[in-house]
From TrEMBL:
Name the UniProt record assigns to this protein: HAD superfamily hydrolase
SUPFAM superfamilies: HAD-like
Keyword Hydrolase included in the entry's annotation: yes
GO cellular component, one term: cytosol
Protein's UniProt keywords contain Hydrolase: yes
GO BP field: DNA repair
UniProt entry keywords in alphabetical sequence: Hydrolase
A Pfam match: Hydrolase
GO molecular function list: phosphoglycolate phosphatase activity
Gene3D superfamilies xrefs: HAD superfamily/HAD-like (3.40.50.1000)
Amino acid sequence: MKLDWNGIDTVLLDMDGTLLDRHFDDHFWLEHVPKRYAAQNGIPLDEAKKLLYALFRSQERTLNWTDLDYWSERLGLDIPVLKQEIDHLIAVHPGVVEFLVFLRRHGKQAWLVTNAHGKTLSLKMRKTRLGPYFTGIISAHDLGLPKEDVRFWEKLQERVPYEPSRTLLGEDSETNLGTAEEYGIAHLIYVSRYSSTVTPTASDRYASIHYFTQLIPAAHTDET
């Protein structure tokens, strides 16, 4: 995919599903948490899944969706500890490090911008060691708004001095790309291979990639 990198100063990148394999998160919330909840409460696993999936859906597109403290209190489980139990599943997508190196070598500001809770960020940055590649890391919990809210992108400018017309956003969420588009962010990339366990499907609305190496100009691929 060809991009005019001369017209891009800032790159905003989501974490889960975009830079990291979402298999970890999907397995954690859909299988691991229900299993522990069922055992703690003495109920069948199917019953636990039905109950928890409904609770999870009720908090979609809110900060509670990714707030580990909220879910720890709501479910009576130590969610950060449960994440550590399966942290071997945390994995960086192929091509991510090469892309981040390309951005740094070409003077682009690379910001990790995520809805993830601070405790999740700490665990994943410790496991992946991606932190030093970024100019900075911003959690939606720092700003008080999720990326699903168009006001998030305005509030982000209080922390990240970006010009929307010269900014690229990489996301595995079409909803978040939509709010960014509404705010005026010009270069929008959908990551279709958000999990190693799913078949990628291109977006009907946004330019789609499987791997970030697709955004590195051919002349620079051997630099990384």
